Task: inverse folding
DNA sequence: GTCTATACTACGATAGAC
DNA sequence: GTCTATCGTAGTATAGAC
């Protein structure tokens, strides 16, 4: 399947070198095909780029959907909702730390900094899906908050997990881990989950 | 000062379009000079890029140093340390949210995802400076934690503020704020600080 | 120091053979 | 569908005038 091979190669190279930095020549060569295959399958470089976004959305959904479908919480079950958030967060953080997702993450990071049409597709296709569930659960865990504050809590909690990927270089530096080894990854995931639990089961002095 | 003008233009364009996407032609033209000025002042594109990193370090230090110098905490003053972290965090988050720092942030973000020599310079020149202080304060606020856990707490707290910049596109989306207005920015900064206070004054059930 | 002019390379797109 | 060959454009670097 040359189409898929092109997509995966392209995500790698777009992620590592940016849209301009990655060349169709190099992508085609790495995928062991001719440059004009890109024209044939995707219409051109731009089309290939957008197809990469769609491909990432599919892959993320494949991993996230089963996770999301396992949580079911009663409307008044505060501690159940807290545990559900922690469970989802641990799964999501694990995905963020896995090497498998590194190329997608770099691709998405580029779009986060300089959003194009590709970001719109990733946001509506994957990010919204996750955040809707998280906001809902935060709402159950923290009924004292109104909608906008629930959203701010949800995004800061999830932001920590995303930062595990986006800020990896500086995390590795601070932990003096040359590469993110399993122990360091576990340490950081545990920390992010503990922080989330802390925020959701707010002690009186930090209630807001 | 054409050198400075070139640097600021270059940071903008490198940040927005990446190293490959930004062309020396365009940078020189925007800075109202000839392309060969870049060769004269910086030796070439690569040299210009590294000089941008050094320039960012200087600018960040100018803003961070006065902030860091205002905090002085006794070794046993737990609540003092917590408040100091919150104070620094608020200042730092404010810097992260300001439009002035947006070009630098994009530049640094590119380096975080794909570190080069430029990241090494930014890390040693600016990031290490900040994180050393934060880790020290976290150590006072949470004497129950050993060094590695202090670091993990410090990086997750600071990561929230950095994510305000790196994840801005998705934050705006979730808050349904087309652009990050003052109210949304204040909401997010308050939230990040509240989370930090929550984490540092840990309630028993989330102690770890 | 700053400019113009030019050499050389690499890019994306496309036409056309198979 | 996939390839080769080629065209026009845009990039960096550099030489040399002033």
Result:
């Amino acid at each position: 399947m040359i189409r898929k091979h092109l997509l995966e190669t392209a995500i790698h190279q777009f992620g590592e070198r940016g849209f301009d930095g990655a060349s169709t020549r190099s992508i085609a060569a790495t995928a062991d095909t001719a440059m004009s295959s890109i024209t044939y399958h995707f219409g051109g470089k731009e089309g290939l780029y957008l197809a990469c976004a769609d491909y990432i959305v599919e892959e993320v959904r494949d991993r996230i959907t089963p996770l999301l479908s396992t949580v079911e919480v009663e409307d008044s079950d505060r501690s159940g909702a807290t545990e559900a958030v922690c469970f989802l967060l641990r799964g999501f953080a694990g995905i963020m730390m896995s090497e498998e997702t590194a190329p997608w993450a770099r691709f998405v990071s580029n779009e986060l900094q300089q959003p194009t049409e590709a970001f719109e597709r990733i946001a509506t296709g994957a990010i919204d899906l996750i955040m809707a569930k998280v906001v809902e659960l935060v709402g159950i865990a923290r009924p004292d908050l109104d909608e906008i504050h629930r959203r701010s809590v949800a995004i800061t909690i999830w932001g920590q997990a995303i930062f595990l990927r986006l800020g990896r270089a500086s995390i590795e530096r601070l932990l003096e881990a040359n590469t993110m080894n399993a122990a360091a990854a576990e340490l950081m995931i545990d920390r992010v989950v503990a922080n989330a639990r802390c925020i959701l089961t707010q002690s009186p002095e930090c209630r807001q």
Chain B has a mean pLDDT of 95. The CA atoms of residues 89 and 193 of chain B lie 7 Å apart. Chain B touches chain A through 60 residues (CB under 8 Å). The two ends of chain B are 53 Å apart (CA to CA).
